[in-house]
């Protein structure tokens, strides 16, 4: 652990002076690697009146002092960066730990009056987001320690249908057989270190329950777009990616045979890994290249896609994770976020749907209305009766207008 003299951080309790932060002289903050040390002079207001050490506390947790120097009239607090209610804030260049020094005067012995006002003094320690605060050089083997500090922040996953040129979200959820669906998976990494997004699996169902039957698998085996292996499809991942935290793929429109509902729900399992982590059998985006008749990765070597043909995508010592299905309220998007500590992987299930699928035959068939005779037997009877009445009226008119035969009288 490096001492505060070499610690590349800054503490704030008001005015900064030559690397040591002071508030009108009485408060000094030292930002160390794992803690902050606050030294307070008991002449806090510069009036010559010494305050009581017991009237000082640190943070919402009201942590007490650790030392009192009777000679120098100082009170010292020492607290870990995550103790005493300290808050963490990420800004573009720094990690900021904030707390407050509280002064709550108590009445003197046998007195009911106060002669000073309460005071709250903001305390901050700023740490650079690049590198570490130790005096010893450390070369991280995975991610710098500053990225670990932001690991508790939530990631915002999304899965959208896009228009054909990927410029905007598709406004309609209706398709015809023969169309191509354009999906864009994305994660908002916020203050995280760069992350790479993968679509681990996708399944189509008639309901929002991914375990319902029937179901059709689009992506399987930890990132294999198996739908593109069929002879009648051109489903692929789009390579290269626009960004590491975005993954696009196209799927030929389909519907479940023999079902009159003509709709589907698509549930996809998304996950992220550090962008610097090499893609492997469990973290990949592979599609079948029809031109070369071979499985190809969006990034990484081709050997990570070889298991897409056999369906045995395992790493030695790993077993495939089975995700329990959960239900969430909501019309289009549902999510279930979990956390894996082995590679700090964040995962989520998202549902898109319902998507309405129409065939060309459906569009060409005339639509029957309730007024069609085939659909309304009473209307047919009424039309038949009306036709009969018209016939009778016409017959009567014909009979009435028929000319009479002339009557001849003979005279003998």
TrEMBL record:
Gene3D superfamilies: Zona pellucida, ZP-C domain, Zona pellucida, ZP-N domain
Molecular functions (GO terms): acrosin binding; structural constituent of egg coat
Main location: secreted
SMART domains given in the database record: ZP
Keywords assigned by UniProt, alphabetized: Cell membrane, Cleavage on pair of basic residues, Disulfide bond, Extracellular matrix, Glycoprotein, Membrane, Secreted, Signal, Transmembrane, Transmembrane helix
Localization terms from the record: Secreted, Extracellular space, Extracellular matrix; Zona pellucida; Cell membrane
Membrane-crossing segments per the record: 378-400
Domain of life the protein comes from: Eukaryota
Modifications made to the protein after synthesis: Proteolytically cleaved before the transmembrane segment to yield the secreted ectodomain incorporated in the zona pellucida.
Any GO CC annotation of this UniProt entry: plasma membrane
Membrane topology: Single-pass type I membrane protein
Domain notes: The ZP domain is involved in the polymerization of the ZP proteins to form the zona pellucida.
Family that this chain belongs to: Belongs to the ZP domain family. ZPC subfamily.
Protein name listed in UniProt: Zona pellucida sperm-binding protein 3
Organism: Alligator mississippiensis (American alligator)
Gene name for this UniProt entry: ZP3L2
């Amino acid at each position: 652990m490096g001492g505060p003299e070499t610690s590349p951080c800054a503490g704030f309790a008001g005015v900064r002076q030559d690397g040591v932060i002071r508030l009108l002289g009485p408060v000094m903050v030292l930002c160390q690697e794992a803690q902050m040390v606050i030294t307070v002079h008991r002449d806090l207001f510069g009036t010559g009146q010494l305050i009581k050490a017991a009237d000082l506390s640190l943070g919402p947790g009201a942590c007490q002092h650790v030392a009192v120097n009777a000679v120098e009239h100082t009170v010292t607090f020492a607290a870990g960066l995550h103790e005493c209610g300290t808050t963490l804030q990420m800004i573009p260049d720094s990690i900021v730990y904030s707390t407050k020094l509280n002064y709550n005067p108590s009445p003197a012995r046998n007195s009911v009056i106060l002669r000073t006002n309460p005071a709250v003094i903001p305390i901050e320690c700023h740490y650079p987001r690049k590198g570490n605060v130790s005096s010893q050089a450390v070369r991280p083997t995975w991610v710098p320690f500053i990225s670990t500090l932001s690991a508790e922040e939530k990631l915002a996953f999304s899965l959208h249908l896009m228009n054909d040129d990927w410029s905007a979200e598709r406004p309609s959820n209706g398709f015809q057989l023969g169309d191509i669906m354009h999906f864009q998976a994305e994660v908002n990494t916020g203050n995280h270190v760069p992350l790479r997004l993968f679509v681990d699996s996708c399944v189509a169902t008639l309901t929002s329950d991914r375990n319902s039957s029937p179901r059709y698998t689009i992506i399987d085996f930890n990132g294999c777009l198996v739908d593109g292996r069929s002879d009648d499809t051109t489903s692929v991942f789009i390579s290269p990616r626009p960004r590491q935290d975005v993954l696009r793929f196209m799927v030929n429109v389909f519907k479940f045979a023999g079902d009159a509902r003509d709709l589907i729900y698509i549930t996809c399992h998304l996950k992220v890994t550090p962008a610097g982590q090499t893609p492997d059998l469990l973290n990949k985006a592979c599609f079948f290249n029809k031109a070369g008749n071979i499985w190809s990765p969006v990034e990484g070597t081709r050997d990570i896609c070889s298991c897409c043909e056999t369906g045995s995508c395992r790493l030695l010592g790993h077993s495939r994770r089975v995700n329990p299905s959960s239900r969430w309220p909501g019309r289009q998007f549902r999510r279930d976020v979990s956390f894996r500590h082995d590679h700090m992987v964040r995962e989520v299930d998202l549902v898109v749907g319902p998507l309405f699928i129409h065939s060309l035959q459906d569009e060409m068939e005339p639509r029957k209305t309730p007024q069609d005779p085939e659909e309304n037997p009473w209307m047919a009877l009424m039309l038949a009766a009306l036709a009969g009445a018209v016939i009778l009226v016409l017959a009567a008119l014909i009979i009435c207008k028929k000319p009479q035969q002339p009557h001849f009288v003979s005279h003998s």
